């Protein structure tokens, strides 16, 4: 009988100290805003002298089976402006939306879509591609290892649209490789320092 109770106590203790396996649910939908570059704000805004109606860009992304769906909504943009949308490796901004003083370049960039503000200063664009957690590129010819592009931003299509804000020259961010400056971009997570297209604590 004593052996029976000893065995029962051992089983009870073994059950007591077994820790459950904790799993984290996959994030299947995210929302985030893009932030304007301060130096070109007046060239971007539909209401440049009204801080209560700033330019807005909201991204909504749904994870899919074979690819993901991005909807980007623009509001309060100067009517008629055209832009080029990219995913990029690095943001120009810090997590609080201010300029990153250590910024050097955007790293790897992927061209995703064109944008154009309508007569009301709005635009909605839909993009289907791999976005959440796995968007990357690589190029063995230049020894570029697989590199993620977890930030989303758009550039002025015409450099002349930003000259009134002091911009000169051009950038390669359109189909003709002759675009204007960055208009708006996502900011990094304050903890992981990764762009919002990575929904986990770390991504490959």
Report on this model:
This protein is mainly beta. The protein has a single domain, classed as Immunoglobulin-like (Sandwich). Helix content is 9%, strand content 31%. The chain has two helices and eleven strands; from the N terminus they run αββαβββββββββ. It has helices spanning 2-16, 41-44; strands spanning 29-33, 35-36, 56-62, 68-75, 82-88, 109-116, 123-129, 136-139, 144-148, 151-156, 182-185. Strands 2-11-10-5-6 form a five-stranded antiparallel sheet, with no helix packed on it. A four-stranded antiparallel sheet has the order 1-3-4-7, with no helix packed on it. The longest helix is centred in the N-terminal third of the chain and has 15 residues, at 2-16. The N and C termini lie far apart (57 Å).
For the largest sheet, list the strands in their spatial order: 2-11-10-5-6
The total beta strand count reads 11
Largest sheet: 5 strands, antiparallel
Mean pLDDT value:
90
List the helices and strands in order.
Answer: HEEHEEEEEEEEE
Strand fraction band? 25-35%
Name the helicity range: under 10%
Number of domains: 1
Give me the CATH fold name.
Immunoglobulin-like
Number of helices: 2
Radius of gyration: 23 Å
What distance separates the N and C termini?
A: 57 Å
User: Which structural category do the helix and sheet elements fall into?
Assistant: mainly beta
Low-confidence stretches: 1-24
CATH architecture: Sandwich
Question: What does the secondary structure layout of this molecule look like, with pairings?
Answer:
Layout (H helix, E strand, L loop, with lengths): L1 H15 L12 E5 L1 E2 L4 H4 L11 E7 L5 E8 L6 E7 L20 E8 L6 E7 L6 E4 L4 E5 L2 E6 L25 E4 L19
